[in-house]
Design goal:
With about 550 residues, the chain is of the alpha/beta class. It contains 19 helices and 19 strands. Helix 5 links the parallel strand 5 and strand 6. The structure holds ligand C2E and calcium ion (2 copies).
Length: about 550
């Protein structure tokens, strides 16, 4: 056998040697400590996978993990890491080595295996490791498989008691939206996404992200910290937890145990000084990055406080002002008390929703009519659907984040539709007329309620008129003529009329079509009606 020098293995070689790697221990785990930079204490570690091939040498995860993912082998690899971590923790507990929580990485492909969380749980139980010692790192991209899958997995992790860390936060553009929807316990920010630029825009982005994580009351950790300057900068913007080469490279079992023995430990803790941290500084500065993020990265949103039955806007973004409409200025908007703009029912609804949001800590929804007054448009009622979440409090003053949608137009359209339907009903009831609407491009027909009630026509008839010939409502000898009518409608005829014997009893009806056109003169819809022919007409 000829030995080759160490080199990166290709896909075929990796796949072919994977089972040997698991069996003969070519896969192994390194541990990288996580530190509180202000105290120098260790708060945990991350398990990182390595593969040392007997011929080609050490392979790095960024090279082999995508191959394992693609070939459906990643779950086995991740479970191998989980078992190694359990075994390691078992050893610490047995030998009185002070243990810290160790996080394992979940691949976004693991989530497709519905049993992933149970498998981790079984492994933990097999080694009898208290759940606080195992954290699970997930990435935003895991949600690509579907928010539902991800939410279910997170719920299950939380039910078992696992701490969940959001890895590589900020690498995807939808970060803030994801955070709003996913309930994670720790956020990991990667310095390398912004390398070499902490003085400039990169630093400002980091700072605003840290600020936002504080509203969510979620601890944040910076990874990939290589220099004292980076660590100091992170500390200066309120991020104390770090992981990276500055403090330690990933370590093997023995090296890590040495570290565990000599370094003090402390648990990860949440930040609490919410409202006051927002009050200070940059958040209020219209030129700051915080403002930019708030304005650019989320939909129509507002932040307001609630205390003693009064609300006060703290911030609204440009999209919020646009959504409310009415040509308001930010100043006009900020000056309003949300509750003052509601009638008594609306007040009750909103206050109820806010109190619910305080009690549950969850996002709550409500719909209220607001009386909005603007200099340009005067007074107007708008229907607002809001999703609110309490994001912090100091004593009895609560801070809320709201995302809103102006649904006035939708509601009005719906009401208009209901009204026209009501009129239509009344008219057709009086006239002995059956009516329907025929959409020319789709050949879809919608009958009036009398057609449905008296003739058994379903609410939507596809491929009209074929089904009505099939069920005998239309007489077969009129087939060619009627199909010719449909052609004529397509070609833009504006009116058609003839007497046709309809229903199985072949009762004569006057059938009429009137066509509706779009602005370019193309036929859109034809309104059909059938009126029973009274005897003297039929005689003519
Ligand atoms: P990750 O989860 O973001 O892990 C952190 C990576 O950054 C590790 O690379 C670590 O060695 C490296 N790193 C730590 N500190 C520094 C630093 O100060 N500077 C620089 N430049 N790099 C630093 P690694 O071990 O090569 O892992 C790469 C990626 O592979 C991981 O990124 C993770 O996405 C994936 N991975 C590693 N182990 C596993 C595993 O067991 N399962 C799964 N599914 N993925 C894993
Ligand atoms: Ca990770
Ligand atoms: Ca990471």
């Amino acid at each position: 056998m000829s030995y080759e020098s160490p080199r990166q293995m290709n896909e075929q070689e990796l796949v072919a040697s994977f089972s040997d790697a698991v069996r003969f221990g070519h896969l192994y785990v390194l541990y990288q400590p996580k530190i509180n930079h202000t105290t120098g204490r260790m708060i945990g570690a991350e398990a990182l996978m390595r593969w040392k091939h007997p011929i080609y040498g050490v392979q790095m995860p960024l090279d082999f993990i995508p191959v394992l993912e693609k070939n459906n082998l990643i779950l086995d690899a991740d479970l191998f890491v989980c078992e190694s971590v359990c075994r390691f923790l078992r050893r610490c507990l047995d030998e009185d080595i002070p243990a810290v929580p160790i996080s394992i990485n979940m691949s976004r492909y693991d989530i497709f295996n519905h049993d992933y969380v149970n498998m981790i749980e079984q492994m933990r139980k097999k080694y009898d490791i208290p759940v606080k010692y195992i954290h699970i790192e997930v990435t935003e991209s895991s949600a690509i498989g579907g928010m539902e899958l991800m939410t279910r997995a997170l719920n299950q992790m939380h039910e078992y008691g696992y701490v969940v860390e959001m890895d590589d936060f900020g690498s995807g553009y939808s970060s803030l939206n994801i955070l709003k929807d996913l309930d994670v316990d720790v956020i990991k920010l990667d310095m390398r996404f912004l390398s070499g630029d902490i003085g400039g825009r990169g630093g400002a982005i980091l700072s605003s992200i840290v600020q936002m994580t504080k509203w969510l009351n979620t601890p944040v950790l910076a990874e990939g910290v290589e220099t004292p300057e980076q660590a100091e900068f992170m500390k200066s913007i309120g991020c104390y937890y770090i992981q990276g080469y500055l403090y330690s490279k990933p370590l093997n079992d023995e090296e890590f145990i040495e570290k565990l023995k000599i370094v003090d430990h402390e648990p990860l803790s949440k930040s609490t000084d919410l409202i006051y941290s927002i009050n200070s500084g940059r958040f209020w500065d219209p030129q700051s990055m915080e403002t930019l993020l708030f304005n650019e990265l989320v939909g129509p949103a507002a932040i307001f406080t609630y205390k003693d039955g009064k609300t006060e806007f703290v911030r609204v973004n440009a999209k919020y002002i646009k959504e409310i409409g009415m040509n308001l200025t930010a100043r006009e908007m900020l000056g309003m008390d949300l509750l003052d703009s509601l009638d008594d029912d609306g007040k009750k609804d909103l206050v109820g929703t806010l109190e619910r949001a305080i009690a549950t800590g969850e996002e709550e929804e409500c719909e209220v009519w607001r009386n909005v007054c603007s200099q340009i448009c005067g007074e107007e009622k708008v229907l607002i659907r809001g999703h609110v979440r309490m994001i912090g409090h100091a004593d009895d003053r609560y801070l809320f984040y709201a995302m809103v949608q102006n649904i006035t137009a939708d509601r009005r359209r719906y009401e208009a539709l209901e009204e026209s339907e009501r009129k239509f009903r009344m008219a057709s009831e009086q006239n002995n007329t059956y009516a329907w609407e025929y959409e020319i491009s789709t050949h879809r027909m919608r009958p009036c309620f009398r057609c449905m009630r008296d003739l058994g026509v379903p609410p939507v008839v596809e491929d009209y008129p074929q089904p009505l010939f099939d069920n005998g409502l239309f007489p077969p000898d009129y087939y060619d003529m009627y199909m010719d009518w449909m052609k004529q409608l397509e070609n833009g005829v504006d009116h058609l009329e003839a007497i046709i014997p309809l229903t199985p009893d072949r009762i004569p009806f006057i059938v009429r079509y009137t066509t509706e056109f779009d602005e370019n003169g193309c036929p859109l819809k034809a309104y059909g009606s059938a009126t029973i022919v009274v005897d003297d007409m039929a005689d003519k």
